[in-house]
Amino acid sequence: MTAHTRDWDAFITVKDTGYAHMDLAVDGITCAACMYEIERALQRLDGIEKARVNLSSHRLSIEWSSEAHDPAQVVDELEALGYKAYPFDPARVKERGDKVGSTLLKALAVSGFAAMNIMLLSISVWSGNSSDIDMETRAFFHWVSAAIAMPTVVYAGRPFFTSAVKAIKVGRLNMDVPISIGVLLATGLSLVQTIQHAKHAYFDSAVMLLFFLLAGRYLDHMMRRKTRRFAENIAVLKAESASRLNDDGSTTELPLSKIGAGDRVMIRPGERISVDGIVQSGESELDQSLVTGETMLEPVKAGDAVFAGTMNTHGTLIVSVTAAAKGTVLDEVNRLLETALEGRSTYVQIADRASRLYAPVVHAAALLTFLGWIVLGLNWQPSLVIAISVLIITCPCALALAIPAVQVVASGQFFKERILLNAGDAIERLAAADTVIFDKTGTLTMPDQTLLISADKEDEALQRAGQLALSSTHPLSIAVAKASGALMPVTGAKEIAGKGVEAKEGDQWRRLGSPAFCGVPEETLAEAMKQFPSASFIAYAEGESEPRLFPIGQSLRDDAEDVIRLLKKKGYQLEILSGDRQSAVKDVADQLGIAAWKGELKPQDKIARVEELKQAGRNVLMVGDGLNDAPALAAANVSLSPVSAVHISQSASDAVFMGDSIRPIYDGLQIARRAHVLMQQNLWISAIYNVLAVPIAVMGFVTPLVAALAMSGSSILVTLNAVRLRLSFLSKSQ
Amino acid sequence: MEILVYLIPIALFLGGAGLAAFLWSLRSGQYEDLEGAKWRILDDSDVEGPKRAQENDG
User: Fold this and answer.
1) What architecture is domain A450-553?
2) Fewer CB within 10 A of the end CB, N or C, for chain B?
3) Is B21 an 8 Å CB contact of chain A?
4) Strand order in the sheet with A298-300
5) Which residues in A lie closer than 8 A to residue B1 (C-beta atoms)?
């Protein structure tokens, strides 16, 4: 093909070594055998220097000597093997190497090394203190500990210090503030004690605290990274690219980031439109269900506006790309989205609420301890030591792990149920939800149109219609082809724009297309429309025999009824808000037994309803997939969208669920509720720990040994409690 | 107790060597794909010899 080329340069980065590098998302990798197969096949190609599949992230990275190779070969080879692959646009993949993750892991390794060695020395000192250690040996051990601890605290503490400084700068308190204060005071105090040859030093506590917290942070980060990587793969495999029409009439396929306003883009039949623009030439019908929720096809001609996310059916369009045009649906959606997102940012995470309460109380307690001992006649220096020991023992190790530990385990559970979380605090908000609002099109119903009568493999007319349908890109034909399971297209089939497909066999015509095109009498059509009021019809005719009508429409997801029943049983208040026609919405609502529904809604109407419910004190979970749902998704307390949703909706929602089932909505709510219970338990555990530990510290009985035992004990306790989430679901699935 | 002056630095050196080895393995990308790595050790395709030749024929 010379007229249409894909511009590979946009996907390639040239490395310092002179090799060209490209990353691809590969769909269909299920096991290690796929990995070997792909790597071997690619390494056989000429010029390929390196081909490595990452089995964890389902990505392939290849390197080749720049001139020797055409990257298109790689994609073709993968396709021949049965894998769908699409290259990453370097401009859209923000981090190839995981910088944050490796910083955390390095800090974790350093603090782990330091914690082990300091503990080795500390235990010797503790046992020596109760027997016969001499002053010089103890001083020597303390100095060695100091030499290890000081650089470690500076290096491994950075993630906490920077976050604490950031929070203080904007006048807020987060968990990292008391952590930083605790670690720095413990180290500082120990250094002073060491210089004064005192009996106790707290280097081990400071470093161990960092080690525990870093372990929690790292696990949390890895979980997020895993889900984010899958989300990125899904986005890339959707192949959001566009064919730019060049001045000489040829087209070049480019990633979206390389398409700008004013470019002309060609949209072929059956393609999803990936840009907003004005039609310059061509006529077609668009499936706008992802944008407005409307299931009827919308005719477009030169001069009409088209939106990203709509599906082109049967005509080729030339579209001139516009930057977010004023007054369009998209513009309106973006404006509503911004205001809605601002509203959500007022939500305070449970961990932040805890730390706001915690920090002032603990710091006040330390100050009172200091003053109290002075009043009782102790010197200022030992008083200060006792006050600092209060801060050390209350340093919120367990409190800082309490929420993230549960979040990590819960995200793992979500991942297993095929839900990818966008936001960590989504779990808390999901747990609080008591009202579920569904969009209809693409959420309760399947995202694509399907045949509404049961497909019988013996039905010969359907089989033959299906074969003909393979030659067409019209959504109705695709539905017929899918339902029939036909594989062999009819040779010589021709698509007639706006009418259908026809093929000549001997001297007999076979036609698939609009009822009029196939000669269906008006009365038959009217009768069929009565039977399937919300369906579109496609007809099949063969020679002189009577034409058949196939009703095509949005069918409910298979398990929609079950899931709705389960949700009702759990006491959720359910509602449908749709942009589709009233009659179509009523059908679905009746079928599912949902009494509250509204149709023909605009994006602002959906927001208004969500706000109304929120005003009434409900916690709203919004589930939707369309462009018109995006503002409502952002306005709701928490939101979910299916993986088939438009990009803007996916990024506005808190989590994305995969697959054809809506069961993940129910499962997700259950996991979230259970996780929330565990989070609260964990907060109680750390609160009780503090209630027990603080009096001991205030009285001045805290030795480094007590501090180490108490802190690690409480951290392990909350972590084990978090793991119970996994156990409770394991036992249920067995 | 003077022996401690030698033993502690030795212990620290050994620990430090372990830390250095870990940081090296991290830098060389060995933690990029933990899922794939456990299968790669079972892959025989880099083994030269008669067994490999047979595989290629079949």
Assistant:
1) 3-Layer(aba) Sandwich (3.40)
2) C
3) no
4) A298-300, A284-287, A311-312
5) 134, 137
Are A300 and A283 spatial neighbours (Cβ–Cβ below 8 Å)? yes
pLDDT digits (tens, 9 = 90+) for B20-57: 999 999 888 888 888 888 888 887 766 665 544 444 44
Residues A146/A147/A152/A155 CA torsion (nearest 10 deg) = 120
Ranges of H-type helices in A417-559: 426-432, 460-469, 475-484, 522-531
Q: Pick the range with the lowest mean pLDDT from A367-371, A447-451, A629-633.
A: A447-451
Residue A584 pLDDT more than 90?
A: no
Q: Does B55 touch chain A (CB under 8 A)?
A: no
For A335-369, the DSSP string reads HHHHHHHHHHTTPPPHHHHHHHHHHHHHHHHHHHH
A155 touches chain B (CB under 8 A): no
- Cα separation, A687 vs A362, in Å, equals 11
Q: Is the pLDDT of residue A166 over 80?
A: yes
Q: What is the pLDDT of residues A359-402, one digit of tens each?
A: 788 888 889 999 999 999 888 888 888 888 888 888 777 778 88
d(CA A673, CA A433): 9
Domain layout of chain A by residue ranges: 326-446+557-734, 450-553
Sheet containing A655-657: order of strands: A419-421, A655-657, A638-642, A620-623, A435-438, A573-577, A597-598
Closest C-alpha to A406, from A732, A221, A676, A105: A676
In terms of CA atoms, which chain A residue is nearest residue B5?
A: A140
* Distance in Å, alpha carbon of A54 to nearest chain B alpha carbon: 6
For A311-348, letters b (16+ CB in 10 Å) and e give bbbbbebebbbbeeeeeebbebbeebbeebeeebeeee
Give the class (CATH, top level) of A326-446+557-734.
alpha beta
Q: Angle at CA A15, nearest 5°, toward A14 and A16? A: 125
Contact A55 B32 (CB under 8 A): no
Q: Hey, which of A6-15, A138-147, A425-434, A517-526 has the most confident mean pLDDT?
A: A138-147
Quick check: A239 pLDDT over 70?
no
